[in-house]
Amino acid sequence: MRRADTRSRSKRPANTLSSARNTPVAGDESVEEEAAGTSSTARTTVAPNAQLASTRLRHELQMARQKLDWQQELVKDLTKDPEEVVARYRKVLKICRKGRTMGAAFKAVGVDRNTIVVNAPMAERCIAAPEAYAELKESAPKKEKLSSFAQRCKDAIDVDDNIVTRIKEYKDSFANY
């Protein structure tokens, strides 16, 4: 049997605040004052779960902005010019001459192995035949992609046997270095 002085949840008066959520209940005078705009302190209380969700969303938005900034910086750092490709290739060679491995050199320069392989014909032609490289570069269209310029350099290297032998000599001397 239930004692007469204890109340169940269903018999709670409608004009009190819910203690569990600290949110106003319909029929409360402060709710009516805030709705009418007559309250002296207009404050909004939010459930803890809603506050956590709001904080989480703000954090996710902040992280998305940071990721976008980071990606934009990476795009700015991309190599856009054949001279930059040649300079990067020479940095890798310089690191390798100091006795480090090719993988360590790629990592130190911050470039993938495949990127070096794809763009190597530009650097090889520039090192082995600088005059021919300059002529090829001057004849290139202004907005030509690096990959297409690298392919043109590779085709030009394959045509000229003198350049092929000079590149092989450089590579052999580098292996004995």
Number of domains: 2
Number of strands: 0
Q: What share of residues is helical?
A: 55-70%
Proportion of residues in β-strands: under 5%
What distinguishing features does this structure have?
177 residues; mainly alpha; 2 domains; elongated
Task: Explain what this protein looks like in three dimensions.
This protein is 65% helix and 0% strand. By secondary structure, it is mainly α. It has two domains: 12-74, no CATH class; 79-175, no CATH class. The chain is elongated, with a radius of gyration of 35 Å. The termini are far apart. Residues 17-21 and 30-35 have low confidence and may be disordered.
Short description:
With 177 residues, the protein is mostly helical. The protein has helices at 29-36, 48-76, 82-97, 102-109, 113-128, 130-138, 146-159, 161-175.
